[in-house]
Design goal:
CATH topology: Rossmann fold
Bound molecules: fructose -6-phosphate
Number of helices: 9
CATH architecture: 3-Layer(aba) Sandwich
Length: 264
């Protein structure tokens, strides 16, 4: 597990974007797992800038998003489809046929639908790099506390903490979805490489539990400790509860000396 400690949100966003860009340059047909959420916006902005100004080419990249609210049509302004189009897809050159986001508007046949989402990932050759955010309750995707560490893509009821956090996106009086279709923890762990980004004090406890806590279904992100190739890109605020924070700081200093051409 690699912890890349960054000064602030801006540095988290540019470091994460540079890592993704390096993967895309190395393998133009990369299968990229994507997340939504406020934390990802700066990263998508930087990737869009790289596409515009540095000719970063996404034309062969295939994407799979982690999740979507149940009950929202893709064109709903608060759907994750809309989020992804506004913040990323409309600024880069990924052909629409290569973009996959769970359809939250289906009303029946969830089991078959979720199995078909998993099959599409497999048919694409599996996810090479999965990008994750983290919820205050330690969720990854929408795998809320008590999710099985072996779970697959399925509908999931949102926790109180997630409802409280995500209601900021909905106008007062507007009904907020209470469930989502999400890739499972088992699905996420099958990605070849995983990068989790986190910023701000509100994430500090969840980040510490994910990196240093026991592996438990109460903190879905703790399952990442089982993965052989995970990078956490976190800022000082999000890292403040890590007991080994000073160690990660020294690792960063050492890495900067040893690898001047590092990605981040
Ligand atoms: C969204 C997702 C969630 C978010 C998490 C953090 O696709 O998978 O796990 O990454 O809720 O969201 P923000 O960044 O808004 O705090």
């Amino acid at each position: 597990m690699l912890v890349l400690l960054q000064t602030d949100y801006h540095c988290v966003s540019t470091a994460a974007a540079r890592i993704i860009a390096a993967w895309v340059r190395r393998d133009p047909a990369l299968v990229l797992g994507l997340a939504t959420g406020g934390t990802t916006i700066g990263m998508y902005r930087e990737l869009s800038r790289m596409h515009r100004e540095e000719a970063l080419d996404f034309s062969k990249v295939v994407t799979f998003n982690l999740d979507e609210y149940i009950g929202l049509a893709p064109d709903h302004p608060h759907s994750f489809h809309s989020f992804m189009h506004q913040n990323f897809f409309s600024h880069v050159n990924i052909p629409p046929a290569q973009i996959h986001i769970p359809d939250g508007s289906i009303q029946t046949g969830y089991e078959e639908y979720c199995a078909s989402y998993e099959a599409a990932i497999r048919e694409a050759g599996g996810i090479d790099l999965q990008v994750l955010g983290i919820g205050r309750d330690g969720h990854i995707g929408f795998n809320e506390p008590s999710s099985s560490l072996a779970s697959r893509t399925r509908p999931k009821t949102l926790s109180r903490s997630t409802l409280a956090d995500n209601c900021r996106d909905f106008a007062r009086g507007e009904e907020m979805p209470t469930a989502a279709i999400t890739m499972g923890i088992g699905t996420i762990l099958e990605a070849r490489h995983i990068m989790l980004i986190a910023s701000g004090k509100a994430k500090a406890k969840a980040v510490a539990k994910a990196i240093e806590g026991p592996i438990t279904a109460s903190v879905s992100a703790s399952a990442l400790q089982l993965h052989p190739d995970v990078t956490f890109v976190v800022d000082e605020d999000a890292a403040r509860e890590l007991s080994q924070c000073d160690y990660y700081r020294r690792v960063m200093e050492m890495t900067a000396k040893l690898t001047p051409k590092r990605l981040w």
